[in-house]
């Protein structure tokens, strides 16, 4: 649980850093973005493997997903991550849409019935998402994060860099905003910030996309 | 009989050949605690003779200090460095196509060897490299035949004699003028420039590409390394630093974010995507952690003056590589191993992304690099001793010998030791430089430049 919490915290932090780095003068730094996505991927792997250990065996993961990702070389892991997320990426922000979650889901983090609830939710979600279990943990992560945000918001706020308040408040919508922006920007010129002129998003026939953003999109979407 | 080593070395564990004792010499910069962002020093470099010391800052400014000629009578210290020239090298720009601001921060300065009375240096920001000429003017022509002293032309009818202007001394004026501007060759952010030993060409490296330029030609450059994958989603590593070999004009190295160094020979092919040598140390599995990948990223690579070795700096260590041995470094020095257990916090406060530089002394016997809390470290390759010193205004009496510092990693803190948790991570020394011939070092804290020398008796 601790491991899961920590991994989740790192993921949250990484997304925030990625978002923040776009606002910096000089634009997106490729090296920094790569490092953040590496950490986020490691955190995600850790989170998933901790989850696998914690949950019952009925929850199945795709065979490509390594049981102990930390022992596998990065390239291998990356390709499995890409496969998992490639299927999951949808044009609509539905996977990241936390508003669909019924309020019944907002139960305390450590109560006993939770694992059962989790597996039910996961299976139904996987049916909805076309059987891609790779995304379902992420969806769970979003819900968990929302609950934990409410429960642990002060703790997170203390540890995050300022402005923590606005970062937290933004999180339920952050991924959706990022995804919408990223999708538009993927067909646009490289490294354009969210404030790129609308003409860019409307006309996909700009310069070939600098798909560094793809890396970020997939990482964010996976999360 | 008395032991051979001096008492000094017993207590100080001096890092330096012949037990150097480092003394404070000068500090440049504002005393204010409130640091203006534009004044943050971003690069420090001695010229080839060591007479000039250049710094670049985040505001795009270059300040050059010149060493006073040694006063033979006062032989207790070497000449002081005083401001010689200050100029605005780069201005903030805006890339309208990408809607991106281009920072004016000077990433690197490299001096050209002196060929005539003027000095030349290359300075670069994220996108543009400039060649600057710094020249002195200490005479001016006076006594023009046709012009008044203020430049106005005299009425021709009043000119009755011929007068030839003569040069008369004037107050020294140092002028910096941009002679070449090398622009529009980098899509990503430039991290390195390096002048070739042929003194005609130089390379510039960004995250994915390295370009070769001729100093005289600004509208063309040759791409010699390109690691951009066809599909950017497959990107796994970026170029972090590059340097030409000091003697072989066909050889250069570049380091990566994965902790590898590639040596390339430009004679092999036009595009040096296939390395001649790959230097990589297998990861120690016991050190593997969540942040292993990112702390193995190399932040700086420097050839030794001899050209036989190269030094790399990653987040926690300095490694010396023999160019003839690719599978592991010949020496590894831990800079601040006590931070290994703090990587998570360092990730939170972004310190884990700090890019430390490193440098060699003139004889390649000692290497130096920076750390946090305004500490910097020196490692003597011969004696295997190391020393930690602090750049602080508290020790700012000239010729005050610096006291070695020690960080207490865990357990009981001894007197005069600092515990890891007390370290100030906002005070970092990223840039240091060593005089090419003498034991004079320049150490940049956030906005101050410290100059230390060895004690001269």
Automatic annotation (TrEMBL), chain A:
Q: Which family does it belong to?
A: Belongs to the IER family.
Q: Which organism is it from?
A: Callithrix jacchus (White-tufted-ear marmoset)
Instruction: List the protein's name.
Output: Immediate early response gene 2 protein
Q: What InterPro entries would the database entry show? A: IER (IPR008653)
| Cross-referenced PANTHER family | IMMEDIATE EARLY RESPONSE GENE (PTHR15895)
Give me the ranges of the annotated region Disordered.
59-168
Q: Which Pfam families match?
A: IER (PF05760)
**Where do the TM regions start and end?**
none
Q: Where is the composition biased (Basic and acidic residues)?
A: 69-78
From TrEMBL, chain B:
Listed GO molecular functions? enzyme-substrate adaptor activity; protein phosphatase regulator activity
One cellular component term (GO) for this entry is:
protein phosphatase type 2A complex
Superkingdom classification of source: Eukaryota
Keywords tagged on the record: Repeat, WD repeat
rRNA-binding listed as a keyword: no
Known SUPFAM superfamilies for this protein?
Answer: WD40 repeat-like
**Any GO BP annotation:** response to morphine
Q: Which family does it belong to?
A: Belongs to the phosphatase 2A regulatory subunit B family.
| PANTHER family linked | PROTEIN PHOSPHATASE PP2A REGULATORY SUBUNIT B
Q: What is this protein called?
A: Serine/threonine-protein phosphatase 2A 55 kDa regulatory subunit B
Q: Which organism is it from?
A: Pan troglodytes
Its gene name is: PPP2R2A
């Amino acid at each position: 649980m601790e491991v899961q919490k920590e991994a989740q915290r790192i993921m949250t932090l990484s997304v925030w850093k990625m978002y923040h780095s776009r606002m910096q003068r000089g634009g997106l730094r490729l090296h920094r973005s790569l490092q953040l996505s590496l950490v986020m991927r490691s955190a995600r792997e850790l989170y998933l493997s901790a989850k696998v250990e914690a949950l019952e065996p009925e929850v199945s993961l795709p065979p490509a997903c390594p049981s102990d990702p930390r022992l596998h070389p990065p390239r291998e892991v990356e390709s499995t991550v890409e496969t998992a997320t490639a299927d999951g990426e949808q044009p609509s922000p539905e996977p990241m849409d936390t508003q669909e979650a019924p309020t019944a889901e907002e139960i305390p983090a450590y109560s006993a019935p939770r694992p059962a609830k989790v597996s039910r939710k996961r299976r139904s979600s996987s049916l909805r998402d076309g059987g891609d279990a790779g995304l379902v943990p992420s969806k769970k992560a979003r819900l968990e994060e929302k609950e934990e945000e409410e429960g642990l918001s002060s703790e997170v706020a203390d540890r995050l860099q300022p402005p923590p308040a606005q970062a937290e408040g933004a999180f339920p919508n952050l991924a959706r905003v990022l995804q919408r922006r990223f999708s538009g920007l993927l067909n646009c010129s490289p490294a354009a910030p969210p404030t790129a002129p609308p003409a860019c998003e409307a006309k996909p026939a700009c310069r070939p996309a600098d798909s560094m953003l793809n890396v970020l999109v997939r990482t964010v979407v996976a999360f | 009989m008395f032991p051979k080593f001096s008492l000094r070395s017993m207590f100080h564990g001096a890092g330096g050949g012949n037990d150097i004792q480092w003394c404070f010499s000068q500090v440049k910069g504002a005393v204010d605690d409130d640091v203006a962002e534009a004044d943050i020093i971003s690069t420090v470099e001695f010229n080839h003779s060591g007479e000039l010391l250049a710094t670049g800052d985040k505001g795009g400014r270059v300040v050059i200090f010149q060493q006073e000629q040694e006063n033979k009578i006062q032989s207790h210290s070497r000449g002081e460095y005083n401001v010689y020239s200050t100029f605005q090298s780069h201005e903030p720009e805006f890339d309208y196509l990408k809607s991106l601001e281009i920072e004016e921060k000077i990433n690197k300065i490299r001096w050209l060897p002196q060929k005539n009375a003027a000095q030349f240096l290359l300075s670069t920001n994220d996108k543009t490299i400039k060649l600057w000429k710094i020249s002195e003017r200490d005479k001016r022509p006076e006594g023009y035949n046709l012009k008044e002293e203020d430049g106005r032309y005299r009425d021709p009818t009043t000119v009755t004699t011929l007068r030839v202007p003569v040069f008369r001394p004037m107050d020294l004026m140092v002028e910096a003028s941009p002679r070449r501007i090398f622009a529009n060759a980098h899509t990503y952010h430039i991290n390195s420039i390096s002048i070739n030993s042929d003194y005609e060409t130089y390379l510039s490296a960004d995250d994915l590409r390295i370009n070769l330029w001729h100093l005289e030609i600004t509208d063309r450059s040759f791409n010699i390394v390109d690691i951009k994958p066809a599909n950017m989603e497959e990107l796994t590593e970026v170029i972090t630093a590059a340097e030409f070999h000091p003697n072989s004009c066909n050889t250069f190295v570049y380091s990566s974010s994965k902790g590898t160094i590639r040596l390339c020979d430009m004679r092999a092919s036009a595009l040096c995507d296939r390395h001649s040598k790959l230097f990589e140390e297998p990861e120690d599995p016991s050190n593997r952690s969540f942040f292993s990948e990112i702390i193995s990223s190399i932040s700086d690579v420097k050839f030794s003056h001899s050209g036989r070795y190269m030094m790399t700096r990653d987040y926690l260590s300095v490694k010396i590589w023999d160019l003839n041995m690719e599978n592991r470094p010949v020496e590894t020095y831990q800079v601040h191993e006590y931070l290994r257990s703090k990587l998570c916090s360092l990730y939170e406060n972004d310190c884990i992304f700090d890019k430390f530089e490193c440098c060699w002394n003139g004889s390649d016997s000692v290497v130096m690099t920076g750390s946090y809390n305004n500490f910097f470290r020196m490692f003597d390759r011969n004696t295997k001793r190391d020393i930690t010193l602090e750049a602080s205004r508290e020790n700012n009496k000239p010729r005050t010998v610096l006291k070695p510092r020690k960080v207490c990693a865990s357990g009981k803190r001894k007197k005069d030791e600092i515990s890891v948790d007390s370290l100030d991570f906002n005070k970092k020394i990223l840039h240091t430089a060593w005089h090419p011939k003498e034991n004079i070092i320049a150490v940049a804290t956030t906005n101050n430049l410290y100059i230390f020398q060895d004690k001269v008796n």
